[in-house]
């Protein structure tokens, strides 16, 4: 095996420094994003006295919002979900539930609960849709601003497009039926539109993990860290990547990803760009990239913003099987969108999106699992054939994971100084343990799943969505038993 | 080049990283401990002082002076807490209770601090001061807010204009209308909401602003006119449907839903038949008008309008012949 030994030594000689520099750059870039987000939060929180949220909540001039709720087999949660969306604090919003050919009692529950009558008005047809609409319902006498569409199954994206076609308000929000929204969610996320109605075309809000928090009547009554370690680690991931990462990209005016679990868009812009792409795996990412293309190719003075206020809570996968499916799907979506929009990469016409955000996503999001898995394989092989000194390997491992933990700890400190949603000391302890545990198998496994998703994207394998089983949130703690692809 | 950094270098990096992690952990725990201590102190102060503030809010005339004396006799941190509580409560209270809360805030010594902050170098403090001036409305607040509405910081100007909504003085109305201009740097929603808050006092000036040369002012005035039922605004609003700026026309149509005039029907019908978002808005306005005025127009929309426009007009689906 001397040839393998020699070959590995040669590989290490070539790759050792580039790998070290990649790892250093990757974590340092994340640290810089966290620092930018920290500065943003500090400025944001200092202004809490005079932000005028209450004035906006009371103003009859607030832009109207259509909340689109696509629902597939959501009988367990649909009643609570629709009620909680209708009860959101906002002066002018309507709710459009799109039943995507559910095989359960979703439609029956809606009809019984909300006293609906058939809506015989025209369907505008402004957005291309695939699924045939069976019937449209609305609340009797318009007592409740609710529209329900019953259609054949055609997927979430197509369901959102149906809702978009029927939306009557200036702004459109798409939320998942199983998401739990903060009472002020619409106020928080629509504020940038009110402040700058000409330029802001889309906003996203923070999505947090609800597992094991107490939920009553569709509202969170007590926030807790999840009991399962796998979900706890995802809390830390969400904090680092979604809360802080996206806040920083928004601050840099280079936001290219808004979570599908809670995004708000100007309706006219969404219609102009054609709504969601029903063929895309990463449909949320794809939509924001299409909007960025609309902005930059059209040289429009418009922007996409992220709102740091927590607005939406969702269940994270609590089993490895579901997590694996989620991560494969996410990474496949990432690859397909990045590849689909490759012409924007390093394209000065796309400004910071093309010159900063996209290179970051290619280098440190898409390639990261490949580099990590290849690195692990090479080091293990090197150890096996004696091409790597075990002491040196351990030292390198400790340095790399130590720096990664430092970066994550910085994110936790920023959260503690700003929103500090996890109040109990034991939650802090769980968070710190999750930072350590993330490196003990979790990130290696997710790297493998992400690679699998990437490969499936390249090979063009058909995406399998998997079954969803939900227990509902009402009057219980969110036990994390949902077995579905969570959304980030 | 060496294939890997020297072990000594890596050990030093590991040591440094570990030291920083430990320091960060200490900072994290200290931060949480201090915040919790601060929160507990606030809760204690609140439990002790909120009854006093509430008592003052509902006090009879002959009781209020004694209660205000009790506020004045508090320690400085306690008075600061009372002032803060009163300010927060003022956001949800109006009428006599609000006047009482303002008196409590005054007795807590808040007003001089707010007035001093108007000249602060920090724009965030000036904006906070503008917000407080709108809530507390002490003597001279209007003049101070007018000055802040011309502040060099757009953030301060925005908060000052919003605060001016609490004043129905003609000078305040004029300043808010001026803030609707396209180049004011103030969100139109803020200035227009302030006008709505000023209500009837702004009516005539809003009507006059419908003919303003600045499109932003016309747009804001058009949006507000219906909400405050500005007298004599119907005819100018009907004219604005065809304004050269689409946003002005859209605002006028929204107001005409609440302030309908028959002379708007031809323009609304033409806009509706042209289709698009404006067409839908026109159809909604027509549907909100008295049936005697809009029946013919709605029939025309039913026959020739786009599906989206027909839907906005509330018309049933057209069946195949």
TrEMBL record, chain A:
Keywords tagged on the record: Glycosyltransferase, Membrane, Transferase, Transmembrane, Transmembrane helix
Superkingdom of origin organism: Bacteria
InterPro entries to which the protein is assigned, alphabetical: Glyco_trans_2-like, Nucleotide-diphossugar_trans
Domain Glycosyltransferase 2-like residue range list: 66-113, 172-402
Single GO term (MF): glycosyltransferase activity
Membrane-spanning intervals of the chain: 20-42, 360-385, 391-414
UniProt cross-references to Pfam families, sorted A to Z: Glyco_trans_2_3 (PF13632), Glycos_transf_2 (PF00535)
Coiled coil: none
Family label: Belongs to the glycosyltransferase 2 family.
Protein name in the entry: Glycosyltransferase family 2 protein
Organism: Agrococcus sediminis
From TrEMBL, chain B:
Domain of life of the source: Bacteria
Ranges that cross the membrane: 12-30
Signal peptide positions on this chain: none
Keywords of the record: Membrane, Transmembrane, Transmembrane helix
InterPro entries: ARM-like, ARM-type_fold, HEAT_type_2, PBS_lyase_HEAT
Name of the protein: HEAT repeat domain-containing protein
Native species: Agrococcus sediminis
């Amino acid at each position: 095996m001397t040839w393998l030994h020699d070959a590995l030594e040669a590989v290490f000689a070539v790759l050792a420094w580039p790998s070290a520099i990649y790892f250093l750059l990757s974590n340092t870039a994340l640290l810089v994003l966290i620092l930018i987000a920290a500065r943003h939060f500090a400025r944001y929180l200092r202004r809490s006295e005079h932000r005028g949220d209450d004035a906006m909540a009371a103003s009859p001039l607030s832009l109207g919002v259509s909340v689109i709720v696509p629902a597939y087999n959501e009988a367990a949660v649909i009643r609570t979900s629709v009620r909680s969306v209708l009860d959101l604090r906002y002066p002018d919003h309507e709710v459009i539930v799109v039943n995507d050919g559910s095989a359960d009692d979703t439609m029956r529950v809606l009809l019984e609960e909300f006293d609906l009558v058939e809506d015989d008005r025209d369907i505008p047809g402004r957005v291309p849709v695939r699924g045939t609409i069976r019937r449209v319902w609305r609340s009797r006498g318009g007592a409740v601003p609710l529209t329900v569409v019953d259609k054949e199954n055609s997927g979430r994206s197509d369901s959102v497009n149906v809702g978009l076609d029927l939306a009557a308000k200036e702004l459109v929000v798409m939320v998942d039926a199983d998401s739990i929204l903060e009472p002020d969610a619409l106020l928080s996320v629509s504020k940038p539109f009110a402040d700058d109605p000409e330029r802001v075309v889309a906003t996203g809000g923070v999505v947090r993990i609800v597992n094991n928090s107490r939920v009553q009547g569709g509202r969170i009554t007590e926030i807790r860290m999840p009991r399962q370690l796998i979900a706890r680690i995802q809390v830390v991931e969400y904090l680092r990547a979604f809360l802080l990462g996206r806040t920083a990209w928004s601050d840099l005016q280079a936001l290219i990803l808004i979570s599908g679990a809670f995004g708000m868009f100007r309706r006219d812009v969404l219609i102009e760009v054609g709504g969601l792409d029903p063929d895309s795996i990463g449909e949320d990412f794809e939509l924001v990239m299409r909007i960025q293309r609309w902005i930059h190719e059209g040289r429009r003075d418009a922007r996409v913003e992220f709102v740091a206020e927590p607005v939406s809570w969702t269940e994270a996968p609590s089993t490895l099987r579901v997590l694996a499916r989620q991560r494969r799907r996410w990474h496949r979506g990432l690859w397909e969108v990045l590849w689909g929009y490759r012409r924007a990469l390093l394209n000065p016409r796309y400004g910071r999106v093309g010159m900063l955000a996209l290179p970051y996503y290619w280098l440190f999001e898409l390639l990261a699992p490949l580099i990590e898995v290849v690195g692990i394989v090479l080091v293990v092989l090197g150890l096996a054939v004696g091409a790597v000194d075990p002491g040196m390997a351990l030292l390198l491992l400790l340095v790399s994971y130590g720096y990664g933990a430092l970066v994550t700890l910085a994110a936790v400190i920023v959260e503690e100084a700003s929103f500090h949603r996890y109040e109990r000391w034991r939650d802090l302890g769980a968070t710190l343990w999750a930072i350590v545990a993330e490196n003990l198998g979790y990130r290696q496994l997710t790297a493998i799943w992400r690679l699998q998703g990437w490969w499936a994207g390249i090979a063009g394998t058909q995406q399998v969505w998997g079954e969803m089983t939900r227990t509902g949130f009402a009057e219980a703690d969110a036990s994390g038993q949902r077995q579905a692809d969570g959304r980030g | 080049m060496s294939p890997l950094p020297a072990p000594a270098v890596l050990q030093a990096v590991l040591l440094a990283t570990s030291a920083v992690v430990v320091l960060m952990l200490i900072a994290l725990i200290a931060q949480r401990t201090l915040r919790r201590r601060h929160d507990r102190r606030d809760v204690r102060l609140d439990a002790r002082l909120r009854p006093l503030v509430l008592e003052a809010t509902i006090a009879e005339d002959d009781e209020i002076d004694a209660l205000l004396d009790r506020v004045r006799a508090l320690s400085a941190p306690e008075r600061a807490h009372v002032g803060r509580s009163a300010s927060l409560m003022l956001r949800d209270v109006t009428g006599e209770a609000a006047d009482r809360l303002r008196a409590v805030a005054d007795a807590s010594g808040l007003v001089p601090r707010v007035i001093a902050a108007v000249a602060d170098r920090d724009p965030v403090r000036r904006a906070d001061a503008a917000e407080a001036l709108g809530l507390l409305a002490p003597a001279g607040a209007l003049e101070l807010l007018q000055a802040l509405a011309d502040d060099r910081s757009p953030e301060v100007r925005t908060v000052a204009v919003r605060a001016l909504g609490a004043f129905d003085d003609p000078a305040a109305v004029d300043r808010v209308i001026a803030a609707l201009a396209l180049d004011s740097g103030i969100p139109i929603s803020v200035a227009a909401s302030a006008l709505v808050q000023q209500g009837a006092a702004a009516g005539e000036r809003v009507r006059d602003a419908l003919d303003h040369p600045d499109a932003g002012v016309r747009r804001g005035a058009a949006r507000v006119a219906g909400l405050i039922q500005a007298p004599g605004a119907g005819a100018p609003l009907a004219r604005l449907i065809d304004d050269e700026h689409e946003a002005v026309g859209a605002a006028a149509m929204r107001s005409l839903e609440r302030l309908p005039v028959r002379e708007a029907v031809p323009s609304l019908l033409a806009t509706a038949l042209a289709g698009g978002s404006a067409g839908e808005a026109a159809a909604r306005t027509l549907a909100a008008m008295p049936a005697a005025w809009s029946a013919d127009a709605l029939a025309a929309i039913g026959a020739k309008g786009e599906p989206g426009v027909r839907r906005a007009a509330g018309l049933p689906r057209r069946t195949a012949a």
